[in-house]
Amino acid sequence: MQIAFTKMHGAGNSYIYLDLFQYDYKEDIFSELAQKIANVHTGIGSDGLIIIQPSKTADCGMRIFNKDGSEATNCGNGLRCVAKYIFDRHIVRQEQLTIETKSGIMLAQVVVQDDSVIEVIVDMGRPLLLRKDIPMLGNPNELVINEIFPLPQQSLLVTALFLGNPNTVVFVNAIEQAPLRTLGGIIANDMRFPHRSNVEFVEVVHAKALKCRVWERGTGITEACGTGACAAVVGAILNGFCQKGEEIVVQLSGGDLVIRWADNDHIWMRGPAEFIADGIYEFLS
Ligand SMILES: N[C@@H](CCC[C@H](N)C(=O)O)C(=O)O
After folding, report:
1. Ligand 1 probe mutation, 217, 222, 252, most atoms within 8 A of CB
2. Which of 60, 81, 225, 230 is catalytic?
């Protein structure tokens, strides 16, 4: 079966996008297609698959599948790319766009130069801080801030929250020494997280800048994670390293995102979105 795709990235977090405004691909292929198309050796190579589709309640809908075929509920870098796609490709030509995700309707504002989107600002909604909402085992109504998290190798201090998806933030003194490869996957798949978790290792540079490296649930190490960058900022504020209301730059391997936890409790994310290629993929199920 031939699949028409577009590859895009936001701060190096790349996905293959399918346009269901134009094509009628059936949803029963998405999970397997994500696993095959994301493979860098035998597919196109990406961090997963994103579906752009018509929505009854918003300007468009978005679904996100990780590299292992699991479906997630939100994707910050994906939201910015979807906004660019539907604006630049004239599907919805508005500077303010609504995008329906499995974790609610997100509001995106595109910044346009020479008739094309160069940056997108997204209202990512409110973080949920209770254990039951992350979810994480333990007292359901407790917060998880700088909590001891014993592992066979060592004990870590974690701050966990839900921001469209589950995130666990670990502060480190030097980002280069963060145990991303050794412990990222172990934390992400730990049984204390019944839905697994994305994992962010974060170094506080100063009150307005963080360095962050990410292990994404269902994908592994990526160059950037939008929801993860937002979680890093929430974690830094909850631990007293940064302040609510301020713009904080999160420096990821693939680029910078600017995040603000506004006084109305919503998280705002600003960052790039870029086209890579259009093509046809030969999908053998
Ligand atoms: N890269 C994304 C998040 C994608 C989903 C995540 N791996 C999950 O399973 O929750 C982002 O930019 O937010």
Report:
1. 217
2. 225
Residue entry with tokens 């303010």: 96
Quote the mean pLDDT of the chain: 98
Ligand 1 lining (C-beta closer than 6 Å): 13, 64, 66, 72, 75-78, 165, 198, 216-219, 225-227
Helix, strand and coil percent figures for the chain, each rounded to 5: 20, 45, 40
DSSP helix/strand/coil, 207: coil
Does residue 135 have a cis peptide bond before it, meaning omega lies within 30 degrees of 0?
yes
Sign of CA dihedral 222, 134, 174, 182: negative
Domains along the chain with CATH numbers? 2-124+272-282 (3.10.310.10), 131-265 (3.10.310.10)
The mean per-residue pLDDT over the stretch 115-132 comes to 98
Distance 169 CA to ligand 1 centre (A): 14
From CA 236, how far away is CA 225, in angstroms rounded? 16
Place of tokens 């919805």: 92
Residue 276 has what pLDDT? 98
Q: What is the pLDDT of residue 220?
A: 98
Average pLDDT of the segment spanning 9-13: 98
pLDDT at 285 over 90: no
Place of tokens 């008739």: 115
**Smallest CA separation from ligand 1 atom 2, residue:** 75
Confidence of residue 75 (pLDDT cuts 50, 70, 90): very high
Which pLDDT tens digit goes with each residue over 32-46? Answer: 999 999 999 999 999
CA of 46 to the centre of ligand 1 (A): 13
| Structure tokens belonging to residue 109 | 């504002």
ipTM value of the model? 0.98
